[in-house]
Amino acid sequence: MIIVYNPTAGRRRAQLLWRVLDVLVENGVRVDLARTHGRGHATDLAREAARTGAGLVVAAGGDGTVAEVAAGLLGTPARLGIIPLGTANVLAHELGLPTQPRAVAAMLAFGRTRPLWPGLATGPDGSLVFVQMLGAGLDAQVVHRLRLSMKRLLGRAAYVLQTIGEAVRYTYLPLLVRIDGVEMTASSVVVCKGRLYGGPFLLAPDASPCAPGFTVALFGAGGTLATLGYGAALPLNLLPCAPGLSLVRGREIEIQAENGVPAQADGDAAGTTPVRITDAGSSIEVVVG
Question: What number of CA atoms fall less than 13 Å from residue 52's CA on the CB side?
Answer without folding.
Answer: 8
